[in-house]
Amino acid sequence: GREVTEAEEEAYFFKLSPFADRIEKLLLETDYLQPRTRAVELVNNFIKPGLEDLCISRTTFKWGIPVTFDDKHVIYVWVDALSNYISALGYLNDKYDDFDRFWPADLHMVAKDIMRFHAIIWPAMLMALDLPLPKHLAVHGWITFNGQKMSKSLGNVVDPFVLGERYGADAIRYHIMREMALGADSSFSNEIMINRINSDLANGLGNLVSRTVAMVQKYFGGTLPTERESGEFDDDLIKTATSLRAKVDDFMDKTQL
C-alpha cells in the first residue's frame, strides 16, 4: 500500500548474453526440454528479444552468502538457490562426496512458473563452470484445488500420504497419468479422484476382469484347456505384450506419460 519509489543499488551481474546461442540450440535443437511448446515459449519470450544480464548480488541487507571478493555484497536469490543442486552433492566442498555419483541428473522436473530459471539461467551457470547439464528438463503445469493453485500460503495443499492411505498408491499413480498431462494445468479434488477410480478402474477395468474370469470359469472350468494350441491371435497378443515394455520405457524417457 506504500508509494512506489525508484531506488539505485550497487550490484554484480552475471552476463548471460554469451550463452544465448548455446541455450537457444539446446532448447530448439535437442530433446532437452519437454514439452516442446515450453522450449519455443522461452526462446521467443527471453532469448529472441535479447537475453538480459542477471543481477546476482545485493547490498541493502546482510542476510545471505557473502561475496568472497567484496564483503559489502551478498549473493541474491536464484544463483544461491540453483547452485544448491550441485553444492549439496559435494561440488567445491569437502562435506559431501556424491557429486561424481549423482551428477548430471537424469531428469530435472520443475513447475512452469520457475522454468525460465531452470531452462536458461541454470544451464548458463553450468556452462560457465564447464559442468554437464541435467540430461533432461521436464516442465509441468500447476495442480489446482477447487480452481486455485495449490500453495502453502493458501493452505490448500493436499497431502499425498493421506491420499495414499485413503485410495492406495496405484490408484493415485493412475489418476496422475490419466488426469494430469505434462505441461498443462490440472484440477484435483476428492470428487474427481473418486469418479475417476469408479469409472475407469472399478467399472471399466473391474468389469472387464470380472467378465473374463466368469467366462473362463463357465466355459473352461476355471483353467485353460491343455489340448489347446496357440494360434495366430495368440502370437499377435504375445508380440504386443512383449513390445509394450520398450514402448513404456521410451515414453517415460521422453516424459510423455
Description:
With 257 residues, the protein is of the alpha/beta class. It is built from 9 helices and 11 strands. The protein folds into 2 domains: 8-140, HUPs (Rossmann fold, 3-Layer(aba) Sandwich); 141-257, no CATH class. It has helices at residues 20-29, 36-47, 79-87, 99-102, 115-128, 160-167, 169-179, 190-220, 232-253; strands at 13-14, 33-34, 54-55, 57-58, 66-67, 70-75, 108-111, 137-140, 143-145, 148-149, 186-188. Helix 5 links the parallel strand 7 (108-111) and strand 8. Helix 1 runs antiparallel to helix 2, helix 2 (36-47) crosses helix 5 and helix 6 (160-167) packs across helix 7. The model has no long low-confidence stretch (mean pLDDT 90). Residues 7-212 form the Methionyl/Leucyl tRNA synthetase domain. Keywords: Aminoacyl-tRNA synthetase, ATP-binding, Ligase, Nucleotide-binding, Protein biosynthesis. It is an enzyme of class 6 (ligase).
Brief rundown of the structure:
The protein is α/β, with parallel strands linked by helices and 257 residues long. The protein is 47% helix and 12% strand. It has helices at residues 20-29, 36-47, 79-87, 99-102, 115-128, 160-167, 169-179, 190-220, 232-253; strands spanning 13-14, 33-34, 54-55, 57-58, 66-67, 70-75, 108-111, 137-140, 143-145, 148-149, 186-188.
